[in-house]
Amino acid sequence: MNNVQWLDEVKFNEQGLIPAIAQHHQTGRVLMVAWMNRDALTLTAEKKQAVYFSRSRQKLWHKGEESGHFQTVHEIRLDCDADVIVLQIEQHGGIACHTGRESCFYRKLTPNGWEIVDAQLKDPSQIYAEKSAQSHNPHTLVMNASTAQSEQVEVLDYLGQMMTERKAADPDSSYVAKLYHKGLNKILEKVGEESIETVIAAKDFKAEAHEDNKNDLIYEVADLWFHTIVMLGYFDLEPQLVLNELARRQGLSGLVEKANRQH
Predict the structure, then answer these.
(1) Does residue 149 have a pLDDT over 50?
(2) Among residues 56, 60, 33, which one has the least CA distance to residue 139?
(3) Four-residue CA torsion sign, 123, 128, 129, 130
(4) N or C terminus: fewer CB in 10 A for the chain?
């Protein structure tokens, strides 16, 4: 596809900018809104990580370059007037807002005015205390290994907390809340569906080790893990319990591990 052609279809404003809405690719929740110029949109499409344009600093801004909370882009959509972008993203660390919350839209209008309805997942001073070790050059979109490792734990903690919150939430408020409202059978149905889709993606990747097939496999495994965590949440079980079990098995031989299982 000709890069110039698809970019020319985008209607940037007088300042050469277009608003970009970042939306969670699974729950559909709007996490943040920022601006993109032509270069930012091009880099986002090429690198599959969100790059915005900072109007205050007048420079490209690779989301997560300071906080470590990068955004992996699964899909880019353009609205009917071609003047708004929607990004379907995975938010690393589970925090999109600089206040330490999942979403920048954490205030709800009530009879008493604007009420904060989302918990702060992390103190902003802690988020920005340690700058990401990676380059601020948006062309070098590579995550530091230690940052990625710490995020893995943060994501699990966040998901465990999210399941607890969504169980009591309005079914219309989120995808997860709707699953919990429908009950265990629906949750197990989704686990089964994602298991089958993971198997199919793995077979496709084996048949043709193409980059697109690899991404499909990764996304399907992520969907399977996510819905498995939803299932654990139904029983009030934290994801950390599974990690503890995996850690327990380290150092045990396969035969010893099998012998220790309850039949």
Answers:
(1) no
(2) 60
(3) positive
(4) C
